[in-house]
Amino acid sequence: MSAGCLRWMFSRTVRAACGGASGYWTPASRFTISIDRSNITASSWRWSPFSTTVEEDTDQTPAPKKKKNPHGGATVGSVGRKIPEQHIQVISEAGENLGTMHRADVIRTMDEKGLKLVLLNQNKDPPVYKLMSGKQIHEEQLRLREKQKAKAAPVQVKELTFSSGIAPHDLTTKWKQVESWLEKKHHVRITLRSRRAAPDVDLDASLGQMVQQMGMTVGFVSKPTVIRNGQAAMCILRPPSAKELSQKNKLSADSSSKTSQSKPESKTDTTEESAQQ
Length: 277
Known about the structure:
Number of strands: 8
Distance between the termini: 174 Å
Radius of gyration: 46 Å
Number of helices: 7
């Protein structure tokens, strides 16, 4: 067989393998066939299981974040009968320390007295729990809720200005307005101005005496001080704290007891004097 026949048979075989149409072969067709073969090889390599090409990760939408409840840590609730610890420290419903108890004994006490178990402090070893009734839990929840509201609510500062020569009737009206603001848990900034004709001396002392004339107990954010180069005095009042109210009640109780003890002595003295006469 001649070399020309071999060349012709080889060309026919290559065209059949590359999918070419029957016909004559041109240099342009050779170029097209080589491009097609390279595309086929690249695509097969791209999708081959032995390929090392790393596929890009698809965009995944992040999971929505759960909103934290600002009052979540300030709740009181019963843990039920599922006590995770074997031994716990128990406080009775009356506030008495019952010591460390086994959870089986705690559950038995709960069933006998009809009480519920509330976690007080989990960081201690053993954790501290308290036996409470349903009414006590409800009252504690209300107290904590009011405490959270008081912390979250912004404090409003009301302002009141009057002259040192104010009439007593007008001053009484001003103090009633101040009392209503303090009952609403507001702060009150009071400014006492001196009279233009005759500047007053010791305006801070005068303002302190005026505040003492109020019919309710108050607390001070800032006590009376002189401002504006001695032309005025200013103080900021706030609602009284529980400690201040208890001290006020204690002082009033002590004064009333002293007056009640002094009255019988005066009567006995008068009777003795009349007897001697």
